[in-house]
Amino acid sequence: MPSRTDRQSGVTTKERPCGKGLAHSRTRQAGFTLLEAIVALVLISSAGLALFSWINGNIMALTRIHDVNARSEATANILEYMDRVNPMLTPEGEAPLGAYSIKWGSQATSNITEGVGYPQGQSLYQMALYSTVISVRTAGDQIWFELKLQQVGYKRVRSNSIMN
Question: What is the DSSP letter of 158?
């Protein structure tokens, strides 16, 4: 088959006989082949999957950070509240603290001892060391987490005898 080259475009065409003369067909195709399109889609989808996985990992890490921060804030509030609770006088109790509530129970881990007065004698108080377990519950009454504290319990047992 004879061929000829177009001088302006540089495209080579082949002439072939047809019913009414010579027809021109291009040997070089313009555009993408099906294989090239599939390869491009695989590359794009692989990059998209990697990006989605990275974003998902960041969202999960952000959720964990949020949970840790919420628990830290709740722990600070609970410790501040429990600082005012005397386990010798209030060994059990519960209290609402905003979006969560606490319930505690205390048990003495040492014998009750008499306090020592300065410079000598007995003080006005008796003391003991208590182990306190605090259960933190969400608004749905589900246990969120638990804390364990060591607290000093005290009770006034004598009156001040110095009246001068």
Answer: S
Element (H, E) at 39: helix 34-82
Number of domains in the chain: 1
For 27, which DSSP code?
S
Residue 62 sits at φ, ψ, to 5 deg, of: -65, -40
Report the distance separating Cα 27 and Cα 52, nearest Å.
Answer: 42
pLDDT in tens, 120-150: 788 889 999 999 999 999 988 899 999 999 9
Phi-psi region of 10 (alpha: psi -120 to 50; beta: other; left: phi over 0): left
Q: Provide φ and ψ at 94, rounded to 5°.
A: -145, 155
Structural domain for 149, as ranges: 38-156
Backbone angles phi, psi at 141, to 5 degrees: 65, 30
30: Cβ contacts below 8 Å, ≥ 6 apart: none
- pTM comes to 0.66
Q: Is residue 32 part of a domain?
A: no
Collapse the DSSP code of 118 into the 3-class scheme (helix H, G, I; strand E, B; otherwise coil) and give the result: coil
Q: Residue holding tokens 């003991």? A: 128
Nearest to 103, CA basis, from 72, 141, 68: 141
3-state secondary structure of 161: coil
Place of tokens 């047809």: 18
